[in-house]
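Field notebook, page 116. I keep forgetting to write these up properly, so this time I am using the form the group agreed on. The chain and the ligand, zinc ion, are recorded exactly as supplied. Prediction of the bound pose follows.
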Amino acid sequence: MDKDCLFCKIIAGEIPSAKVYEDDAVFAFKDISPIAPVHYLFVPKTHICCAKKITAENSQYVAKIFEAIAKVSEQENIDSYRVINNCGEDAGQSVMHLHFHLVAGKKMGWGEQSLG
Ligand code: AMP
Ligand code: ZN
């Protein structure tokens, strides 16, 4: 846990969130500013700042996140979806705790502004 990290505080329950999924390794909750009818954030329950810091030692969290995404989307009958990871400032990463956006419920285009 990083005491200054927003998502670590959400995982610890210090900041409220609308939880959609939790297991021993993964926590998922609704994005506070959704860009689509379905917009969830999947985060590892350990502080990893960003995709750049994924290693052989912690990559099981990424696998578990994708397993969780498959479970939640099946449970919620989400047939078509997009998974997004922003890494670094220019890519739009605003919270420095690794997270994957699950976005669904609308027709999505492809290209730089496709989700704007
Ligand atoms: P990114 O821009 O990829 O770093 O994504 C960070 C996401 O966190 C944004 O989509 C924000 O809307 C979302 N966010 C920020 N604060 C909260 C919060 N307290 N609860 C839920 N989502 C949040
Ligand atoms: Zn954190």
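OBSERVATIONS:
- The first strand starts at residue 19 and ends at 22.
- The first helix runs from residue 6 to 12.
FOLLOW-UP: compare against the apo run.
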